[in-house]
From TrEMBL:
The keyword Oxidoreductase applies. Its cofactor is L-ascorbate. GO terms for molecular function: dioxygenase activity; metal ion binding. One of its GO terms (biological process) is defense response to oomycetes. Keywords: Dioxygenase, Iron, Metal-binding, Oxidoreductase. It catalyses: salicylate + NADH + O2 + H(+) = 2,3-dihydroxybenzoate + NAD(+) + H2O. This is Fe2OG dioxygenase domain-containing protein. It comes from the Eukaryota. Belongs to the iron/ascorbate-dependent oxidoreductase family. Signal peptide: none annotated. Residues 198-298 form the Fe2OG dioxygenase domain.
Length: 350
């Protein structure tokens, strides 16, 4: 366990120690300059009201989603139908977990990315020399019965029905969003939800402790999400930023909303109409931050490729077909590179 412990963040920091450990210090050549750290105001990332999604407002909502997916690959949603208590409960449980003494959490630690339940830091400790200033607990959550027994038993609230309830609710929401996104591409409503096998679902509980020297660390470094869509819940501490036209834009917390982003697989299905955008989470000196993304994925054996309906003479297929499993392995083994691994699947243009 010694190596695990030294790789973990120093959450139980001894008072008076106010330096970032070496394994978290990013190389000097790779430090951000000040203009890069500064983020613009986020009011420009659309907030879409889902009220009436199954009524008279559907066409209008779908148009807004299409526009957001083409331009930013990100949008925020309100009136999403998930009760406030369910959301509050999952946030509380995540907070309780990360505030447990390190010794109680350590038994969930693993640096093997193929494990379905694990506590770790960074993406892949085996291939990355410098870790991100983030701890995360990754949980598979579909089908629930297959994975619940692997979840932490501490804090005891983890064993209640709240985590499962949250997962089920977010899954229903994800399916509604995928249908709307299909329609926004001009595909039949169930194109994405029906064609990709029985679908996986994972959740991460991300914990960003206060950082004594944020400018020296990688925060959660820029990345795209490899799945279909991500539905992110964040607490009230700002940190999430997305890249638009070469500038980082902050998406500051708005109560009772979720942030939705397009992952690499929808970029492929849409034949590059929709964008899987680089995003990151910055850390700060004095406040911890918790975020809980749900990653909705195709099944491993699902065959992904540009939708036939979106390919024509003017828009030849940008990607070859591949299974999600193939993609997943490429993603987790790509080492330090932050660029999207979609490039490896592009068909060379004539
Ligand atoms: C992620 C992610 C953003 C955040 O976990 O993939 O992008 O705000 N998280 O923590
Ligand atoms: Ni992400």
């Amino acid at each position: 366990m010694a190596t695990a412990a030294t790789k973990l963040l120093l959450i139980d920091r001894v008072p008076g120690i106010n330096r970032v450990p070496n394994s978290y210090i990013r190389p000097e050549a790779d430090r951000p300059n000040l203009t890069e750290v500064e983020a613009s105001d986020a009011s420009t990332i659309p907030l879409i009201d889902l009220e009436g999604l199954f009524g008279p407002n559907r066409d209008n909502i779908i148009r807004q989603m299409g526009k957001a997916c083409r331009r930013d690959g990100f949008f925020q949603i309100k009136n999403h139908g998930i009760p406030e208590e369910v959301v509050q409960a999952i946030m509380n449980i995540a907070g309780e977990f990360f505030r447990l003494p390190e010794s109680k959490r350590l038994k969930n630690y693993s640096d093997d990315p193929s494990k379905s339940t694990r506590l770790s830091t960074s993406f892949n400790i085996k291939t990355e020399k410098v870790s991100n200033w983030r701890n995360f607990l990754r949980l598979h959550c579909y089908p629930l019965e297959e994975y619940m027994h692997e979840w932490p038993t501490n804090p005891p609230s983890f064993s209640g029905k709240e985590v499962g309830e949250y997962c089920t609710r977010v899954r229903e929401l994800a399916l509604k969003l995928l249908e709307a996104i299909s329609e926004s591409l001009g595909l039949e409503r169930e194109y994405i939800s029906k064609n990709l096998g029985k679908h996986g679902q994972h959740m991460a509980m991300n914990y960003y402790p206060p950082c004594p020297q944020p400018e020296l660390t990688y925060w959660l470094r820029g990345h795209t999400d490899q799945n279909l869509i991500t539905i992110l819940l964040q607490d009230d501490v700002p940190g999430l930023q997305v890249l638009r036209d070469g500038k980082w834009i902050a998406i500051n917390p708005i109560p009772n909303t979720f942030i939705v982003n397009i992952g690499d697989q929808i970029q492929v299905i849409s034949n590059d109409k929709y964008k899987s955008i680089l995003h990151r989470a910055v850390v700060n000196c004095d406040r911890e931050r918790i975020s809980i993304p749900t990653f909705y994925c195709p099944s491993p054996e699902a065959l992904i490729g540009p939708a036939q309906g979106l390919i024509d003479q003017e828009h030849p297929a940008v990607y070859r077909s591949f299974t999600y499993e193939e993609y997943y392995h490429k993603f987790w083994n790509r080492g330090l590179r932050t660029e999207c691994c979609l490039d490896m699947l592009k068909i060379p243009s004539a």
